[in-house]
Automatic annotation (TrEMBL):
Protein source organism: Acidilobus saccharovorans (strain DSM 16705 / JCM 18335 / VKM B-2471 / 345-15)
Record field: transmembrane: 12-33, 45-66, 73-93, 99-122, 142-164, 210-233, 239-259, 271-293, 338-354, 366-384
Matches recorded under InterPro entries: MFS (IPR011701), MFS_dom (IPR020846), MFS_trans_sf (IPR036259), Sugar_transporter_CS (IPR005829)
Lineage: Archaea, Thermoproteota, Thermoprotei, Acidilobales, Acidilobaceae
GO cellular component terms, semicolon-separated: membrane
Name recorded for this polypeptide: Multidrug-efflux transporter
Membrane topology designation: Multi-pass membrane protein
């Protein structure tokens, strides 16, 4: 087995093992807040928002570490945080430790959404490693495959999250997340490091940060509340919530395998326009249907449309970025997304405080953030074209030149 392939296999296994632990924590955490702390949906939203802010900052730090101290060292440091999360929850679970666990584990988004969710602080260094071990011709395909494998195991984690009592779930998450770190020494990586803090790709870092911000805002306004809506509004039992979340994760996961075909047939920008654009009517309808199974149907479609183009977007970002700056640009993109995701969650949380209240008798009050989602997503799609239209045309032209 060639060295890059061998390391990609180990990286895939490492991500998969971590994803199981992350999936368990994603399901267990909101139920522990509700049943042990008697926390409201509003309080849970604040925890998610604070966790998102912390993860945003940590993502940028990890991105810098990936470029300045090396990929493997930064992977060790960032991986420890997920191990500490269930340990903190096991030692004592109160309001303070719940906030601490949410911050350490980055418990702020759905398991189906992937990067930047539970344990997502490792995202920038993992993206840099993938770029180091691939080339333009196979990068989107391999990102799709690794994301697929990781998401399948995350779905397994969400399913396991509804099977045992809380202590058993947390012990299992601790052992699994710790075991994943044993795989890091097996990675054989090129020693890619920046010589200093200055960056040649500042403009692209800015563009990806701005689009990341709007993408994060749409996430923060809605995503952290979808599963809690099932819990608080529809009073869904834990096993059913776990099964629905698992189904959504699996549908989204299998859709990622279509990313290379999507890129080949539509290109980067049209992939974003179509898939993200279709989420707008889904999010407008979700808070208005008033029926659990109708809401489930919309939820099953939404993550698929949000994630199917992620490998295309990541591959495009990495292709435009010099190797020694990929950790930082990935960190800025993820950090800005999570920062605005937290802002969106702060904005959205008050609308969920009175979950039975209505807006002028026309719709539930918690529908307002979903309306804001449509506006922000429309602006995000516009900026993708404005920022990256010329870059896509240039890359397409260079590819045509190579083939000729």
């Amino acid at each position: 087995m060639k060295e890059p392939t061998r390391s990609l296999v180990y990286l895939s296994v490492l991500r998969s093992v971590r994803s199981v632990a992350a999936g368990i924590l994603f399901i267990v955490f909101p139920y522990m807040v509700r049943e042990l702390l008697h926390g409201s949906l509003f309080e849970l939203g604040i925890m998610y928002a604070v966790a998102g802010l912390a993860t945003a900052g940590l993502s940028i730090i990890v991105g810098y570490m990936a470029d300045l101290i090396g990929r493997k060292a930064s992977l060790y440091i960032s991986s420890v945080l997920l191990v500490l999360t269930p340990i903190v929850m096991l030692v004592k679970f109160n309001l303070a430790t719940a906030f601490a666990a949410a911050i350490l584990g980055g418990i702020s988004a759905t398991g189906a959404m992937g990067a930047g969710g539970v344990g997502g602080v490792v995202g920038p260094v993992q993206n840099a490693i993938i770029a180091d071990l691939t080339h333009r011709g196979n990068r989107t395909k391999l990102i799709s495959l690794l994301s697929f494998i990781g998401s399948v195991t995350a779905a397994a984690g969400t399913l396991i999250g509804g099977m045992f009592n809380y202590r058993e779930e947390l012990l299992l998450a601790t052992v699994i997340s710790a075991a994943s770190m044993l795989l890091i020494p097996q990675l054989r990586l090129p020693d890619v490091r920046a010589r200093g803090l200055s960056m040649k790709s500042k403009v692209n870092a800015f563009k990806f940060s701005v689009t990341g911000m709007l993408n994060g805002l749409t996430n923060g306004l809605t995503v952290p509340f979808i599963v809690p809506i099932f819990i608080y509004v529809y009073d869904a039992p834990r096993y059913l919530t776990g099964e629905v979340t698992t189904a959504a994760s699996l549908i989204a996961t299998f859709s990622m395998l279509l990313a290379p075909k999507l890129e080949e047939s539509l290109g980067f920008l049209r992939s974003i326009y179509i898939t993200r654009g279709l989420t707008i009517p889904i999010m407008l309808a979700f808070p208005l249907v008033g029926n659990f199974w109708a809401a489930v149907g919309l939820y099953l479609a939404y993550p698929m449309l949000r994630v199917i183009a992620i490998p295309v977007q990541q591959s495009f970002l990495l292709e435009l970025t010099p190797p020694e700056e990929r950790g930082r640009v990935s960190g800025y993109n993820q950090g800005s997304r999570l920062l605005l995701s937290s802002v969106g969650t702060f904005i959205g949380s008050p609308f969920f405080y009175l979950q039975d209240a209505s807006l002028l008798g026309l719709m539930p009050l918690y529908a307002v953030p979903f309306l804001a989602y449509a506006v922000a997503m429309g602006a995000n799609i516009y900026l993708y074209r404005r920022f990256f239209g010329a870059d896509e045309a240039r890359l397409r032209g260079s590819s045509a030149g190579v083939e000729a």
